[in-house]
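Subject: sequence -> structure tokens, single chain

Hey, anyone have a minute? Need the predicted structure for the following. Not urgent.
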Amino acid sequence: MLDIQFIRDNPKLVSEKSKQKNVSVEIDKLLELDVKRRELINKVDTLKAEQRELNPKTKSKPDHATIEKATELKTEISKVESDLIPVEKSYLKLLRQVPNMPTEDVPIGADESANVVQKTVGEAPGFDFKPKAHWEIGESRDLIDRERAVKISGSRFVYLKGDLVRLQFALNQLAIDQLTDEKVIENLITKHKLNLVAKPYVPVLPPIMIKTDAYEATGRLKAEETTYKIDGDDLWLIASAEHSLCSMYINEIIDESKLPIRYLGYSTSFRREAGTYGKDTNGLIRLHHFDKMEMEVFSTPETGLDEHLLQIAIQEHLMGLLNLPYHVLLKSTGDIGDPNARGVDIEAWFPSQKTYRETHTADFMGDYQARSLKTRLKRANGEIIFPHTNDATAFAAGRTMAAIIENYQTADDHIVIPEVLRPYMGGQEEI
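Reply:
Had a minute. Here:
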């Protein structure tokens, strides 16, 4: 959630920035409810203070007038608290609809068409044959079986088989080895001149189901668009590992000495992917179920943005190790999502489509998520504030393998294994 004091002080700015993110918010109504809520809370506090004053300071029995007044106060407190409940509910509902404010460098635009390419790295491979789509190669080599998956699960599910499975686990191990290596983190911090400590990431296998309250507090619960509900239970299947990682410290206070907390989460993820996406329904780009490695960081407000930049540096480092051509996009206000203050995508080159496609995303949240989750930070001086959170893709297995298949394909439908992955596959050079 956004800080209500910031909204009180900047109602026009919040309305303007919300419109830039394609979000319609009722700021005037929210502020009216805010006033009414505070009045009711103050009234309850005043009545309770009176109630405490009536408590006998000795063990002597209170007189009739005192008992009568105490009864009146109890009744009035109950009534005011009852009046507060619907006001509080409406207030929180509107407050949660207010999106995070974009940082100054975020391009203003309605959708992804306003995203800005910051840089392009690597050259597209030159083929002396017409490159095939990754699913064509995968299906011809019996590495991807979509037809049988459709029979038992429906569209946008696949069986991954053979060396493609081994390739996925090789990617996982590469990410773990790189992100848990303090020297790798230190080198990236130095290279990009970031004011951070070289603390490695901790691997985590997080829950893949979340309760409604916790999921809503992350700002990531999009029931109609991306998320599946467990019938009969107050549980949702996560759409990415960071959803159960960012909510890990809900209603907790973290000591500043423990920061930064850097996690590398691996999980199965589930998304509805509602809508039609043309050729994407054939391959590994938009599946209902996929595996993903995700970075999540809890940090001080002073280091939050640098942690975001470190995550992007890690993503580029991993793409460089795979020797995949890519470009970096700074996402527009209409494309970064409600909880994000800033968002960056890395897109790999796909020869069959002659275009770049998303393989990684990095989200800077500021304290927006932490405030809603009531995750707090205790400073060394005892001050209690909200930490910053960041999340970013390490590897989305399907999308990364699709990029490898397309960029490393041969004329006879073989797949050259990127050199950095060969040690994880017993020295094998081709699939």
